[in-house]
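Marked as duplicate of an earlier ticket. Keeping the data here for the record.
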Amino acid sequence: MHSYEGLLPGFHEALQMRFDTNRAWLADLKAKNYRLLENYLDIFRPVGADESASTAITDPALYSAEDSDTAFLTDQTIRNLSVREHQGWFAHVNYIRPHPPLVAPAPFNKMYKPATMPPANCSGGIADQKARHPFFEAFFSEPANSGLYIGFDGRMDAIPEHDARALRAVYFGLISEVDRHVGRLIDYLKASGQYDDTLIIFTSDHGEMLGDHFIWGKETVYDPAFHVPLIIRDPKQQSTAGTVVNALTESIDLVPTILDWIGLALPPAFNGASLAPFVRGEQPAVWRDHVFAEIDFGDPETATRYQRHLGLRLAESNLAILREDRFKLVHFNGGLPPLLFDLQNDPGEYVDLASNPAYAGELARLQGRMLDHRMSHGDRELSRMKLTESGVKIAPPDA
């Protein structure tokens, strides 16, 4: 319990790839005669043509593409799996890229031209964004996310457009680097005869704003921070390969999907549901019509800029999001006003309808649905059980 990057009980860390230290990767670089700097993060500083430190965002990383942390993780995964080819295994291959500090090894650093990058989705200026809600005013009240790239001062409201396009180009390059190495894993599974026996799930823990609404990172309420890729390749379902499913899903559906695939029952405390019916080309008899998310924006040790700017206690520094196909409600604790977006007519989430009298009914309906959701998904592990003369009776997960 000394790091937020620790593992839950029962998992074995085959390779320690902690972002804050990443000692296994550093040891590999040192063995290859890279000059390591005293400050770990300086390894992510771009280098110029003469290999000196650079401030140009699209200059390459000091390490080669063959020696990047993405390449290293892939190499070690294939190495570990190579001695498990005739037994069952489960691997959680957790790529950190694309992730700040944004720097890419050659050729990925120049794979996309900044001039061709699409502009960020912004409406009005930074003053308009701050005025949309006290939460955004607090967001920009102090420099933050200084780790976006080495040398960044944390002022997200003052990033020049040419720098923003360069950052997006590097981010896209890092995506392509991950794509290449996921391809290497798939090639290995095929070459070792395991591809048609392996369930593959590709997803991410969060999205990235990339400058939309002048915001970088994930610390926000907008869809780009929550809309993540989810690709499932089930070798048992060749006939449905390539099917696109538009249903609303949540990360909590992944464990039920895996348990379903290997034939294990879902523990009663789980709130997620298996995605296996979709993979088989079926429509589940019952499926959610909304997704739910919560964010804590306080800190138990040092008050955050939100707490300081808004005068909130730690217990009040949180929000909840309920998103349907069309409408999206953001409820803030601490007496802050809600946000309401009509995603059908305003996919960019620019217009807050929470104070519009014409949408008072939708606001009340969504607030009620959020309360229902919280009440339905509390910790009910024991309430699902009944003690009888013939033993413990447990209700099914969908009861």
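See parent ticket for discussion. The chain has a mean pLDDT of 93.
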